[in-house]
Amino acid sequence: MKKPGVCVLRTDGINCDEETFYAFEKAGAACSMVHVNQLRSGEEKLSSYHILALPGGFSYGDDVHSGKILAVELTSFLKDQLSAFVDSGKLIIGICNGFQVLVRTGLLPDRKLGEISTTLMFNDSSHFECRWTNLLVEHTNCVFTKNLEGSVISVQVAHGEGKFYTDRDTLQEIENRGQVVFRYVGNDNSPTVLYPANPNGSLNALAGLCDTTGRIMGMMPHPERYVERTQHPNWRRMPGNTVPHGFAIFKNAVAYAREM
Ligand SMILES: NC(=O)CC[C@H](N)C(=O)O
Question: Which SUPFAM superfamilies does the protein's record reference (predicted)?
Fold first, then answer.
């Protein structure tokens, strides 16, 4: 069976492309590193792929606002390609900087290119947060978290601008439509807005969300950093058959794409 194709999008400052590439290849996809300029020149086309992966990092050095410049490239030079990709029902995952890009294109929360209704802003702690966090996986129609619903997973965060923020009505709509996929949880496994379990102060402890189709998902934590047991600091004390928590997200995406 032909492997689903993943476009791992690169540009200046992206630094989690290699791990994202590795995670999707391990999950059974055929990945390509594609620089945004290759899409802009026509050398590469989004339509050649089943999944668009926006990796983490510091695209364009986080100048203006983290993810902003790449978001502008996507909603201007690549608007038609991106719209066609979304309308064809394909998958998009945005991890950390990639999530910041997705909210600044308007693809999240409502697939409205160019209409920004939410943001990821500076952490309440006012500094870069880089450590492991625990996330509750909510019951949603998100393709990436199938069969993970109700579980608590451990995933790393590494960001300076991770606080999810929006107006009260938009937040209520996101909640009412069941678009919140991940929430930061404390030691009692319940969602918290309290530091340090919530590393940035995100409203409603929101760590990731999807659009209403469940095919576009963005999250601040890095699942690609936990697709091998030995990536966890306690791996020596874990059973040999431990399934790394981040891996299921990539496996779900590839399984869905195989059926497309
Ligand atoms: N790891 C990342 O993708 C970081 C995203 C962004 N540069 C921030 O610091 O918030």
Answer: Class I glutamine amidotransferase-like
Q: 73 alpha carbon to ligand 1 midpoint, in Å? A: 18
pLDDT 10s digits, 113-165? 999 999 999 999 999 999 999 999 999 999 999 999 999 999 999 999 999 99
Contacts (Cβ under 8 Å, ≥6 apart) of 125: 195, 199, 200, 201
Give the residue extent of every domain in the chain. Answer: 5-258
Question: pTM value?
Answer: 0.98
Please indicate whether residue 199, judged by its CB atom, sits closer than 6 Å to ligand 1.
no
Residue 72 burial (CB count, 10 A): 16
**Residues across the chain:** 260
Nearest residue (CA) to ligand 1, atom 7: 58
3-class SS of residue 50: coil
- 64's tokens: 């203006």
Report how far residue 229's alpha carbon sits from residue 212's, in angstroms, rounded to the nearest whole number.
32
Q: 5-258, what's its fold?
A: Rossmann fold (3.40.50)
The complex's ipTM works out to 0.98
Could you tell me if the CB of 218 is within 6 A of ligand 1? no
A 10 A CB-CB count for 29 gives 25
Between CA 42 and CA 85 the distance in angstroms is 15
DSSP sequence for 166-233: E-HHHHHHHHHTT-EEEEEB-TTSSB--STTTSSS--GGGEEEEE-TTSSEEEESSBGGG-SSGGGST
